[in-house]
Amino acid sequence: MLALLSMIGGGAATARDAAVPSWPDTPLGRTQALALLQTLNADLLSHDSATLTLERWCGAHHMASPARVIAQRVRGGDKPLPRDLRTQLAIDANEPVKYRRVQLKCGDRVLSEADNWYLPNRLTAAMNRQLDSSDVPFGKVVRPLHFRRETLSAELLWSPLPAGWELQRTQTQSAAGALAIPHFVLQHRALLFTGDGRPFSALVETYTGQVLAF
Length: 214
Known about the structure:
This protein is α+β, with helices and mostly antiparallel strands. The chain has one domain (about 25-75, about 85-160, about 180-210): Chorismate lyase-like (Chorismate lyase), CATH 3.40.1410. About 30% of the residues lie in helices and about 25% in strands. InterPro entries: Chorismate_lyase_/UTRA_dom_sf. This is Chorismate lyase.
């Protein structure tokens, strides 16, 4: 991994460089990018807190110092709870639901954008006040609930390698310049449950190409 970082980074990045992932558009570069996306995906799937997982990722890849993830609120507008997620939460139309959209940032990089529908009646008054008045990540606010996470789906929105690449007799041809990485690369849909097994939050987390910006 150190060799990979040296090859890709080359030197100290400017603020503008930090905003745009720069990977060589070569068979090796594409394979390494895919391996890292799959590694992050597996790490997210094996832990209950996406926030803490992203902090570890940010720290391990020296993306910011300190490697601390903050939730930047995206205010204005609401988004209705999708019908399938209402069913998963096992609530009727009368149950109060709050909506919170955030960008999870480490340093100057937005690593994910998350839609969060949560049930305020299943949180403490102090938690609700903090969620209403601060940008603290949801997972950190509700940590005292000793929650667990159940992933409903995990989808790679982009693959650096084309479908069927492993069956091709020749390698993917290199292109000039850097690999074009889309804004969104990975999406998870999940539920959070309290320690006694009651669902209290539904999440749609969409991870950006900035997870590869190192």
